[in-house]
Write a structure and sequence with these properties.
The chain has 132 residues and is an alpha+beta fold. The chain has a single domain, classed as Translation Initiation Factor IF3 (2-Layer Sandwich), CATH 3.30.110. It contains two helices and seven strands. The chain has a five-stranded mixed beta sheet. A two-stranded antiparallel sheet has the order 5-6.
Length: 132
Protein backbone atom coordinates (compact mmCIF):
# COMPACT_ATOMS: atom_id res chain seq x y z
CA UNK A 1 0.00 0.00 0.00
CA UNK A 2 1.38 3.39 -1.02
CA UNK A 3 2.08 6.16 1.47
CA UNK A 4 1.36 9.84 0.92
CA UNK A 5 4.12 12.25 -0.12
CA UNK A 6 4.22 15.97 0.63
CA UNK A 7 5.64 18.87 -1.35
CA UNK A 8 5.60 22.03 0.78
CA UNK A 9 5.06 25.41 -0.92
CA UNK A 10 5.93 27.27 2.28
CA UNK A 11 6.00 26.54 5.97
CA UNK A 12 4.23 23.69 7.70
CA UNK A 13 2.15 24.19 10.81
CA UNK A 14 1.96 22.38 14.16
CA UNK A 15 0.63 18.84 13.76
CA UNK A 16 -2.97 18.07 14.65
CA UNK A 17 -4.18 15.12 16.69
CA UNK A 18 -4.93 11.83 14.94
CA UNK A 19 -8.68 12.36 15.35
CA UNK A 20 -8.71 16.04 14.28
CA UNK A 21 -11.28 16.91 11.63
CA UNK A 22 -9.90 17.64 8.16
CA UNK A 23 -12.29 19.31 5.70
CA UNK A 24 -12.28 17.61 2.29
CA UNK A 25 -13.34 19.55 -0.81
CA UNK A 26 -13.92 17.97 -4.21
CA UNK A 27 -16.14 20.09 -6.46
CA UNK A 28 -16.45 23.26 -4.39
CA UNK A 29 -13.75 25.34 -2.77
CA UNK A 30 -14.01 26.62 0.82
CA UNK A 31 -16.14 29.73 1.30
CA UNK A 32 -13.77 31.27 3.82
CA UNK A 33 -10.33 32.60 2.93
CA UNK A 34 -7.44 30.14 2.96
CA UNK A 35 -3.87 29.67 1.87
CA UNK A 36 -2.52 26.70 -0.07
CA UNK A 37 0.74 25.52 1.46
CA UNK A 38 1.42 21.98 0.25
CA UNK A 39 0.59 19.32 -2.32
CA UNK A 40 -0.06 15.81 -1.05
CA UNK A 41 -0.11 12.78 -3.35
CA UNK A 42 -0.74 9.09 -2.81
CA UNK A 43 -0.22 6.72 -5.72
CA UNK A 44 -2.28 3.75 -4.54
CA UNK A 45 -4.94 2.11 -6.71
CA UNK A 46 -7.41 2.00 -3.81
CA UNK A 47 -9.08 5.44 -3.55
CA UNK A 48 -10.27 4.89 0.02
CA UNK A 49 -6.72 4.09 1.14
CA UNK A 50 -5.30 7.05 -0.78
CA UNK A 51 -7.76 9.46 0.86
CA UNK A 52 -6.97 8.05 4.33
CA UNK A 53 -3.23 8.49 3.72
CA UNK A 54 -3.67 12.05 2.39
CA UNK A 55 -5.81 13.15 5.36
CA UNK A 56 -3.33 11.52 7.76
CA UNK A 57 -0.46 13.46 6.16
CA UNK A 58 -2.59 16.65 6.20
CA UNK A 59 -2.92 16.33 9.98
CA UNK A 60 0.85 15.82 10.31
CA UNK A 61 1.56 19.12 8.53
CA UNK A 62 -1.20 21.03 10.36
CA UNK A 63 -3.69 21.49 7.51
CA UNK A 64 -7.28 22.55 8.20
CA UNK A 65 -8.47 20.90 5.00
CA UNK A 66 -7.60 19.51 1.59
CA UNK A 67 -8.85 20.22 -1.92
CA UNK A 68 -8.75 17.14 -4.16
CA UNK A 69 -7.35 18.18 -7.53
CA UNK A 70 -7.04 14.93 -9.47
CA UNK A 71 -5.36 11.59 -9.80
CA UNK A 72 -1.73 10.99 -8.87
CA UNK A 73 -0.72 9.21 -12.04
CA UNK A 74 -1.67 6.81 -14.79
CA UNK A 75 -0.40 3.70 -16.42
CA UNK A 76 -1.19 2.29 -19.80
CA UNK A 77 -0.26 0.03 -22.61
CA UNK A 78 -0.13 0.60 -26.35
CA UNK A 79 -0.94 -2.12 -28.84
CA UNK A 80 0.14 -1.60 -32.45
CA UNK A 81 -2.57 -2.42 -34.99
CA UNK A 82 -1.29 -1.90 -38.51
CA UNK A 83 -0.01 1.66 -38.74
CA UNK A 84 -2.04 2.74 -35.65
CA UNK A 85 -1.48 2.23 -31.96
CA UNK A 86 -4.38 1.47 -29.64
CA UNK A 87 -3.68 2.85 -26.16
CA UNK A 88 -5.48 1.90 -22.96
CA UNK A 89 -4.66 3.78 -19.77
CA UNK A 90 -5.99 3.94 -16.26
CA UNK A 91 -5.59 6.72 -13.69
CA UNK A 92 -4.83 5.89 -10.08
CA UNK A 93 -4.16 7.50 -6.73
CA UNK A 94 -5.08 10.97 -5.56
CA UNK A 95 -3.56 14.43 -5.54
CA UNK A 96 -4.66 17.18 -3.15
CA UNK A 97 -3.70 20.66 -2.02
CA UNK A 98 -3.39 21.21 1.74
CA UNK A 99 -4.99 24.42 3.00
CA UNK A 100 -4.90 26.55 6.13
CA UNK A 101 -7.82 28.87 6.87
CA UNK A 102 -7.11 32.58 7.36
CA UNK A 103 -8.76 33.49 10.64
CA UNK A 104 -9.78 37.10 10.95
CA UNK A 105 -8.86 38.78 14.21
CA UNK A 106 -12.00 40.30 15.78
CA UNK A 107 -11.93 44.02 16.42
CA UNK A 108 -12.19 45.44 19.96
CA UNK A 109 -15.92 46.23 19.59
CA UNK A 110 -16.67 42.58 18.73
CA UNK A 111 -14.65 41.45 21.75
CA UNK A 112 -16.46 43.86 24.07
CA UNK A 113 -19.89 42.65 22.99
CA UNK A 114 -18.83 39.00 23.20
CA UNK A 115 -17.90 39.28 26.90
CA UNK A 116 -20.81 39.81 29.24
CA UNK A 117 -20.67 40.10 32.97
CA UNK A 118 -23.18 38.54 35.32
CA UNK A 119 -22.42 39.68 38.85
CA UNK A 120 -24.59 36.92 40.36
CA UNK A 121 -22.51 34.06 38.95
CA UNK A 122 -19.07 33.11 40.21
CA UNK A 123 -16.15 33.75 37.87
CA UNK A 124 -14.64 30.29 37.21
CA UNK A 125 -11.65 31.69 35.32
CA UNK A 126 -10.27 33.94 38.06
CA UNK A 127 -10.21 37.03 35.84
CA UNK A 128 -11.72 40.45 36.23
CA UNK A 129 -14.06 41.64 33.54
CA UNK A 130 -13.92 45.39 33.05
CA UNK A 131 -16.59 47.01 30.93
CA UNK A 132 -15.50 49.77 28.56
Amino acid sequence: MAKAKVTLFGESYPAKTEDAKIDVYMTNKPTQEYIEFAQITCGDTNDKWSLEQITKKAREIGADGIILIGKAGNNGVGVPIGNLTYVVSEEYGMKAVAIKYKWKKPNSQQCATAITSDSTSPNPFGISIVSA
